Amino acid sequence: MSKRVLIVDDEESIRSVLVRLLAFEKFSTLTATDGKSAIEAVSNDMIDIVLLDVKMPGMDGIEVLKRIKRMDPALPVVIVSGHGTIETAVEATKLGAFDFIEKPIDMDRVLLTVRNGIKQGSLTRQNIRLKRRFGGNPRIVGEHESIKEILDIIDQVAPTAARVLVTGENGTGKELVARRIHELSDRNSEGFIEVNCAAIPEDLIESELFGHEKGAFTGATSRRIGKFQLADEGTLFLDEVGDMSLTAQAKVLRVLQESTFERVGGVELIDVDVRVIAASNKDLMKEVERGAFRKDLFFRLNVVPIEVPPLRKRRTDIPLLSDFFLKQVAEELGIATKRLSPRALEVMKGYLWPGNVRELRNLVERLCILTKGEEITDTNLPFHTSDSRSDWENDPFSIEDFQNFRELTEKEYLLRKMGENNGNISQTARRLGMQRSNLYKKIEKYGINYRNVEKNK
């Protein structure tokens, strides 16, 4: 289903241009000529984003924005004005506007803003659902020791102004950690502004972060407010910061040092009070060594490091996470809560989860939709398994990632040795020349149910 854009403007020429542009990009459009009809459209239709003029007869755009946000806080609204000022842009942002675009309209900018706004609106709706369900704070689920340590660090660092660097593989929940820090901080009444540094072209990242003045570069037909200014008194989340250009890194470093910046093409110094939380799936020290990341910026960001472990290293949390997602999906879809069979859970604990918690969440949702009956069994799982082990056993050397190869072969080795000793931990540790406590740690790491280990025949 195509996304629906509501265009609110009293100028027919502006409406028609935007309708043609968005229709060409496969968006569905609705139009309104004044504030009253715009509010009626939001009340009566499924709208994904609003493009809203400021100067209109009767109710102006700022008043319309206030009413829309009272009706639907998650609906992204982009202010489009030919009479814009910085004061108007800041006021609109504080009232919840997603972005501010000045006329004459830059069509490429409109398309980028619409796409980003729709994505942000979807994320905001998910966040609101979680807040309503779990009392306001983003929920980090897990009882593994590593998760308990992360939660302890969050509780300690959240009330401070310290910068935090969150590292971990894709899908482990780095953004969730950042959002929880923000929600537990004294800045939680202000914005949590996210910038995905990997998704923005190198030649646009500086404009995205710091904004630009009209005429700063080809295509800069109006002044743009950057994310640092939008995050003033709130939190700026720099996701995948390792993908930022060296030039942009230098400017970010200056903001962290001086709490001031200039827009691209501008000379005015803008003061900001922003807490920065950064995240990366890269080893930033290695990036420093190869000259791709500034060493001084790394140390500025890495005041409090938090490493989020991959799911394969916290396999004991898989039943807890699965149960959480089963209930969550059932509520979102309006269906009865399903359950996973013990055998299905064992198979899931033996899987590598290259997509981590995000992959688990997606799998649970797919299983809830496609599985008939109340119980999800191992036969419903997409993994090619016969005894909770993958086809990698047929050709372990086909595994390209060394870490995965080492962990899989180590787990298989321990399973076989424990089978030879009928699951006896002390006897297995003694024969392997390993301390029993160390063996217990590996059993926990790989999610091995040693009580059910069968004797190797």
What is this entry, summarized?
This protein is an alpha/beta fold. The chain is 45% helix and 13% strand.
Overview of the molecule:
The chain has four domains: 4-117, 3-Layer(aba) Sandwich (Rossmann fold); 145-309, P-loop containing nucleotide triphosphate hydrolases (Rossmann fold); 310-387, Helicase, Ruva Protein, domain 3 (Orthogonal Bundle), CATH 1.10.8.60; 389-457, Arc Repressor Mutant, subunit A. It contains 18 helices and 16 strands. It has 457 residues and is an alpha/beta fold. Helices cover 45% and strands 13% of the residues. The longest helix is centred in the N-terminal third of the chain and has 28 residues, at 107-134.
Which helices and strands occur, and which strands form pairs?
Layout: E1 4-8, H1 12-24, E2 28-32, H2 35-44, E3 49-53, H3 61-71, E4 77-81, H4 86-94, E5 99-102, H5 107-134, H6 145-157, E6 164-167, H7 174-183, E7 192-196, H8 205-210, E8 211-212, E9 224-225, H9 227-230, E10 235-239, H10 246-258, E11 260-261, E12 270-271, E13 275-280, H11 284-289, H12 295-301, E14 304-307, H13 318-333, E15 339-340, H14 342-349, H15 356-370, E16 375-376, H16 402-420, H17 425-432, H18 436-446
Parallel strand pairs: 1-2, 1-3, 3-4, 4-5, 6-13, 6-14, 7-10, 10-13, 15-16
Antiparallel strand pairs: 8-9, 11-12
